[in-house]
Design a protein that fits this description.
The structure is a single chain. About 45% of the residues lie in helices and about 10% in strands. By secondary structure, the protein is of the alpha/beta class. The chain has a domain of about 170 residues: P-loop containing nucleotide triphosphate hydrolases (Rossmann fold). The termini are far apart.
Length: about 300
Amino acid sequence: MKNVGDYNYLIIGGTTKAATTSLFTYLADHPTICAATYKETRFFLSIDYPLPSKYRYKGDVEVYTSLFPNCSETQLRMESTPDYLYCGKARERIAELLPHAKLVFSLREPISRLISWYRFAKQIGKLPQRLSFDAYVELLFDALERETEEEQYLQTLQQGYYTIYLKSYFNRFDPTRIHILFYEELAAQPAKVMMDLCNFADIDADFYQSYTFKVTNRTEKMRNSGLHQKYRDIRFRLRQWTHDKPIIHNPLRAIRRTIEPFYFLLNTQPDEDILMSEETRHRLENYYQQDIDALSALIGKLLPWKPREISN
């Protein structure tokens, strides 16, 4: 009988707000891949990492098997936990315990990502609805100076400084086991990006030639953020409880997919353009420019975005 480390894995590290949910969905549909029973297992994150999870590594890696209950011996096992990028213990655990794993990181232009996080933090009730984007950026720079462990929505400034995190992965893993893709290219040319990813993972790329790509987990402006937070909490708890009970999980997922569009229709409203002062824009451009240059050098190619190529 095989142990956990004997299997082949595709681990999506990515960054948050960079289409990792869509990427997980596209990959889960591939017949060669067996996805974890829910997207973000968060299994290898450190115990004190500020995100909840049902399973967390506590010395017994074989528990990880329970997240892949319906996989065949030959399928490529896949999960997506964006915050693996930022957690040093996760990096070391994956390197030590999953010796055949390949890693994928989805990155996004950092200022556009910051705007998306600003919208998302309002959506889930972490920020006041009237807080301006300029004021949010000020909060982030203040949090950066405190150098203390902050909630995730207050770590988003430095987490867009990708090179310091990726360099540790390139130092720990053979670079041939790491694949970098970009949110902007996935949105513009999903078939090409997915076929390149298949070539990296050594699985059939033809599957995506006629595949229908749909965006999932899009950030919306909520009418009632408190109600949406309760909805997210209920969905999270149900997924944790039922993920390994397919006789319950699958019907509930089908019901959610039917009902959820109506819920979003009722509890979302037209989004608004995000206003950003020139002072804030220049401050962010100056903050990220060094990392943009370093990232391009690290991966050996030009990036698909520049500081001025920012959209709301």
